[in-house]
Design goal:
6 helices, mainly alpha
Length: about 110
């Protein structure tokens, strides 16, 4: 299954979320285990997991009273094909939003 490439790239574009994805791809674990391993607060972990879930990247399985998280490999496997179709297919439907950082980084300083 493939999700929205822009949403997936945005979710994985954050270094912490990319690290979380890598950890649960190799060894499924609970959000509490992730928070301890990365030394981040549980609310911060919840924020990052919301973004990964919204992108369709997280699989959840009940194991007793624990919810174990894993990375959905099929979403990543379909990402390249979906991104190519979106980029080279029909014109973009959503307006392009330029971030302030990118716009300011593109300016060349005057001498």
């Amino acid at each position: 299954s493939s999700g929205d490439p822009a949403l997936i790239f945005r979710a994985l574009g954050d270094a912490t979320r990319y690290t979380i994805a890598g950890l649960i791809a190799r060894a499924p674990m609970t959000s509490a285990e992730l928070a301890r391993r990365l030394a981040i607060a549980k609310p911060t972990m919840a924020h990052h997991l919301r973004a990964l879930r919204a992108a369709g990247l997280v699989l959840e399985e009940m194991q007793g009273t624990r919810i174990v998280l894993a990375l959905d490999r099929s979403v990543l496997e379909g990402l390249s094909e979906a991104a190519v179709a979106q980029l080279f297919g029909a014109p973009a439907e959503a307006p392009i939003r330029r971030s302030r950082n990118r716009a300011s980084a593109a300016r060349v300083p005057r001498r």
